[in-house]
Design brief:
- This protein has 283 residues and is of the alpha+beta class.
- Helices cover 25% and strands 35% of the residues.
- The chain has 6 helices and 12 strands.
- Strands 1, 2, 3, 4, 5, 6, 7, 8, 9, 10, 11 and 12 form a 12-stranded mixed β-sheet that branches.
- Strand 10, helix 5 and strand 11 form a beta-alpha-beta unit.
- Helix 1 packs across helix 2.
- The protein is globular and about 55 Å long.
């Protein structure tokens, strides 16, 4: 990611600025102890972006959408799960009052784990096999997941490239606590020639003492008609595995409200757990 600037107001507040492309600026690492400080940070950030030729600011984004981005806008009562953004209720209000508008909306929903999750709608090609993450070949599995992720997400809003090593470095610290039964890979072919064509990455989440919960964090597949239905199949397999292990609830995390994952998440008896927004301002 291109050059970063820092705005530091001591213990009162701070923010970071990135320049990912021509006339575009990202504002992230936002922290303000008051509405007054928030307004000061936003004013300084806008001035710096203007001097550097930026015409559109997006925020909050910590450098790229591979890192934390978005503000929580509703659902502040439940504790955040791994990789989820979390912020005071005042932050999105500060952005809106400063002239930002919503650029994209997202949700996380919660529902019972399903032993058969819309199973009747799944009709995969016979050469596709769903299997759990192989921890003995963890780095090879992560490398194959990287290839799927960069292809699947390439058309996403504000997508930027990430190196294979950066991708692995994000997931490698989780390997020690990973439950491979909750990370489902889709393989096309058999044996050494099998290619990873999709995956569901899920992690445990202590939602409450009486509710064992798993978070379905990342779902992606390669493009192509031959892989149609794979997202639903991976979701179903993860639900079934979680259900068999003893998880009673599943969180479908951080999906775009008008995206394909929203269709999958809303196809069952789900309840919205939290909502998020990414903001933009033209200057």
């Amino acid at each position: 990611m291109s050059e970063k600037e820092t705005i530091n107001l001591g213990e009162a507040g701070h923010a970071s600025l990135w320049y990912p492309g021509e006339k575009i600026g990202y504002l992230g690492n936002f922290f303000a102890q008051s509405q007054e400080i928030a307004n000061e940070l936003l004013t300084i950030a806008q001035d710096r972006f203007t001097v550097n030729g930026v015409s559109t600011i997006y925020g909050p984004i910590n450098g790229s959408t591979w890192n934390q981005y978005r503000f929580v806008t509703s659902g502040f009562t439940n504790k955040p799960f791994l990789f989820e953004p979390f912020n005071p209720e005042s932050y999105p209000k500060s952005f809106l009052e400063f002239g930002f508008e919503t650029a994209a909306s997202y949700e996380s929903s919660i529902l019972k784990t399903q032993e058969k999750y819309n199973h009747s709608q799944i009709n995969l090609a016979p050469n596709i096999e769903l299997c759990p993450f192989n921890q003995e070949k963890a780095l090879i599995e992560l490398e194959s997941m990287y290839e799927v992720a960069i292809s699947s997400f390439a058309d996403n809003f504000l997508y930027s490239d990430i190196s294979k090593q950066e991708f692995i470095d994000k997931y490698k610290p989780l390997l020690a606590s990973l439950d491979p039964r909750l990370v489902i890979l889709a393989k096309d072919g058999k044996g050494k020639l099998a290619q990873t064509v999709g995956f569901m990455f899920a992690i445990p989440y202590d939602f409450s003492r009486n509710c064992r919960t798993v978070v379905l964090k990342t779902l992606c597949r390669l493009k192509g008609e031959q892989y149609k239905g794979l997202g639903l199949a991976l979701t179903s397999a993860c639900h079934q595995s979680a259900h068999n292990i003893g998880y009673t609830r599943a969180v479908h995390a951080l999906y775009k409200t008008n995206g394909a994952s929203a269709v999958i998440s809303n196809s069952q008896q789900s309840k919205v757990l939290r909502k998020y927004s990414l903001f933009k301002k033209c200057i």
